């Protein structure tokens, strides 16, 4: 399982940083740090450790702008 | 004019806030009230930054009774205690509620509600009884969102006028901190009435769940955490009513006034409903139904280079930020073809409006249905007689009489 963040949608609400703090972080300007690793408008994660999947799923469900999705 | 020169104790300032907010944004973007009532923060970047730092700008709130002992006593004796949940709460506890409540307003829920929303809009128009002059605000937008919410919460239609009255009383409490003790006591009785009514519904849904929001809340589970209890659910419902009814009413009223002021836009969206979502977004930016969100300064910090002190109340002016020229080109021009992405009408950060999809769907459907039913809509009164209510913190039209030509 991996996840993808659509950087065109991400607006830095940072809900995800509370749900999966090991993965999502925003800098002092409120910008998702993963943005620096995005290719084009998307960031695609490496394969997730099983214990992180639940938190990322929560983050995807609760992102106010639906910028996060899980992919097999 | 400098912000100091506006007398905010007179209603006139609040019936048209545009000059006052523009003065704050351009003259003193971090304004401190002289009488210790806290701060007004207006620039887009500053508002966004403060909203992104709940550890500095928290959502700790005064109690619902407002320090009136008789009102507090009613709640203690007959009601359920006020507890922190979403908009009156902070991380880490806030996160638990946000997780449990997210599914009540999820994209799936909102899509499934669409036929119901459409039917309610049609029913409200049926109630016009074919009259050509109606008050768009009092007869359409005032009732439509509260019927949608009542349906979704599982309130039978016969009780929906009561529901609307509870909602109005709660909104008055949250917007009028200086209300008389007598009125506050009345509103507390109304609140307790609301609590008892919904406590019964909560028990019913526990026993036999249905397809409604209360059933989702009583069955909400996050692994390893206890389910929501009755006071928590009641507090969440109070939040839905305050945040969901009046704001949507005000968005719809303001959006219709914008269309009446811009007949070319009305004609354009009528001929292409696909433009309605863009109209809704630009209206959200332009109107900002909630003028500000309130925060408490947790420790001394600075905003845009100005020091703010701990314990101060900070109003983050969404309405001013949405008109900040540093963020939006020609911010005072209403243009449905601009890209208003990033507007803060729903707030920003972890408290971003949890019901934004429902609000957006209601706004879109309310217009689609009205356009289907009425071939022509025009203002029934002189433009200058259309006024806002003198309510600090919200954009709310008193009324909007229109002439309808039915299809």
From TrEMBL, chain A:
Q: InterPro entries recorded for this chain? A: 3Fe4S_ferredoxin, Fe-S_cluster_ET
Can you name this protein?
Ferredoxin
Matching SUPFAM superfamilies, A to Z?
4Fe-4S ferredoxins (SSF54862)
Biological role: Ferredoxins are iron-sulfur proteins that transfer electrons in a wide variety of metabolic reactions.
Record keywords: Transport included?
yes
Tell me yes or no: is Iron among this UniProt entry's keywords.
Answer: yes
* Cofactor entry: [3Fe-4S] cluster
**Protein species of origin:** Pseudonocardia ailaonensis
TrEMBL record, chain B:
A Gene Ontology molecular function term of the record: monooxygenase activity
- Specify the domain of life of the species encoding this protein: Bacteria
Q: Please report a single Pfam family linked to this protein.
A: p450
Q: Does the keyword Metal-binding apply?
A: yes
What PROSITE patterns is this protein classified in? CYTOCHROME_P450
The keyword Isomerase appears for this protein = no
UniProt keywords, alphabetically: Heme, Iron, Metal-binding, Monooxygenase, Oxidoreductase
Q: Which family is annotated?
A: Belongs to the cytochrome P450 family.
Name of this protein: Monooxygenase YjiB
- Organism for this UniProt entry: Pseudonocardia ailaonensis
